[in-house]
Amino acid sequence: MNMMTETTFSHDSDLEEAVIGACMIERAAMPLVADKLRPEMFYEEKNLEIFAALQSMYRSAKSIDTITLKNELAARGKLDAVGGSYELLRISSKVSSSAHLEYHALILRQLHTRRIMRTGFQQLLAFSADESMDIDDILVEAHRLLEGLEDESGVADHLRSIDRLMDDTLAEVEQRMEHGCNGITGIPTGFDALDHVTAGWQRGDLNILAARPSVGKTAFALNIAQNIGTSTDKTIALFSLEMSAESLVNRMLCAEGSISANHLRTGQLDEQEWANLIVAVGALSKQVFISMIHQGSRCPRSVPRVGG
Fold this sequence. Notes:
Strand order of the largest sheet: 1-2
Distance between the termini: 37 Å
CATH topology of the largest domain: DNAb Helicase, Chain A
Number of helices: 15
CATH class of the largest domain: Mainly Alpha
Largest sheet: 2 strands, parallel
Shape: elongated
CATH superfamily of the largest domain: DNAb Helicase, Chain A
Structural class: mainly alpha
Strand content: under 5%
Order of helices and strands: HHHHHHHHHHHEHHHEH
Number of strands: 2
């Protein structure tokens, strides 16, 4: 793909003006796009400045029309930069309504994401050709790029109406009634007292285990992972900032197989412990994934591919 084709593919000036024009002439337009578009998503500099002014006026609950927009741009010192009053009138006259505005905003967001992809991938190519750069640093940059792209491509509106929330909540309650067991509607941890409080680990919840040093936080977390991995069809991913993956595995094998940690460490296993070890390896190997996280990086993007 040559540069001209790529650049043309990455922006659409007419579409940008259609979105801006709709926001200038219809009161209902800005609420539809204010939370979906940002000024930097507009490729043309003048369109960027106009939308920035429109968004600021909307956030401040100011009335929006060509006159008030002109005054806002003048106050920002950007009126001449965008082409003056004539340019605002020209853009507003290009559209007659805000029909299809949300779809137009979606296209603009996708074009912006494509521009980020092109810039980011070109940078990664340059990094990969630079043999003085550590490969781990390049991978960290790759992870950051992919995370940014995922954020940018989240075109689904995160704001839901109360009616939609009610429907979703009722559906979730019905599912709990149908599939719950003894009051446990989430993923059981294997600790009855904890499950009684939480009803099992629930989708979307963040559970933080906090305590003083050396009181068993890691052991407790490993036991939960072990219980879920061996007693359900769920896949567990463990990310360690401190202990090595091998150390974590040793602790899990000892707990699963009732093996002396000292015997495992020194290699002095009796026949029963060796048999228990083989069984424990089989129980844990298919459902639990462990990764070390390097400082400055985040959870590997490959996690969703290894299980649900």
